[in-house]
């Protein structure tokens, strides 16, 4: 006789770490925006019509010709040596201090795994990149938010905080921040590096957009300032993360981390347990594109995003009510909108979708809640005509929401 068994309660069997996981708010919204008539300012997606498709095809052929079956074989966890060498030369550091990862998101997850113990204090911008929050959350951090303004992190507030609150880690996106599009100004960068060095706080500098500047002057990276402050790559308390996803193509999932040797050693061990190594052929393809295609592609993307940002800003100034505030990025893919305090961008999204326009509500970007009256707009993947129509529709949506209270 077959025994009667109760259905398994899978939820009850989940680990504490799994219970802390949550779905990406952006990915959930993108499911709604797959309809062809929806103009989406939601996802931070590179413009697909700008992808160097033929160049990637030729690079794949070249890699297979050059390396043969080795291109399809398992490889080293640290990454394809020529790719690591190139990255190291750009940064002026040994290749041994470079770890290749499968997309920036894996890099953040691995850093959370090796650095965050339950209850550790992690400092984040308010608002901050929600993908970082999603990566770090399973490891049980205690978030403390740092106030920001048009110049980025308020370093006076950071200094006051560090005098009284021990912290292990500070996470920041200093260039064209996701979600606000703001850039941390040069003097604040220097003070941030000095303060964190003085108080023994590790800094994760997430810089996927740094090459996408279309106006203004570049400032030194936090990593560069960390090298200057400490004088040694293996005592630098700044960890640098970047990616080829925004400059070449996202589908190859090639990114990297620059860090002190003890951290690289632990990242190697963590990555071995995650996926052994980033796909060999993908790394070889990227390497084939570095010296010729990459610089041209960066310039193409800069020009296109600069044009699209200008169109979006011009139409916002014409279509949005006067009491709506917004940022004016000098690069990257995003700008940030602040509505009057009584409005709720999550509720308003449903009205926007009836006009076939989508965005990301701002609240998921705040580690400790809030931001209900904010939203993020991406101008990277919408064409100029779509930006014009979408901002007009969004302006109508905001005015309607204001009129109806």
Automatic annotation (TrEMBL):
It holds the Pfam family Aminotran_1_2. Its cofactor is pyridoxal 5'-phosphate. Keywords: Aminotransferase, Pyridoxal phosphate, Transferase. The keyword Secreted does not apply. SUPFAM superfamilies: PLP-dependent transferases. One of its GO terms (molecular function) is transaminase activity. Residues 50-394 form the Aminotransferase class I/classII large domain. InterPro entries: Aminotransferase_I/II_large (IPR004839), Class-I_PLP-dep_aminotransf (IPR050859), PyrdxlP-dep_Trfase (IPR015424), PyrdxlP-dep_Trfase_major (IPR015421), PyrdxlP-dep_Trfase_small (IPR015422). This is 2-aminoadipate aminotransferase. It comes from Deinococcus aerophilus.
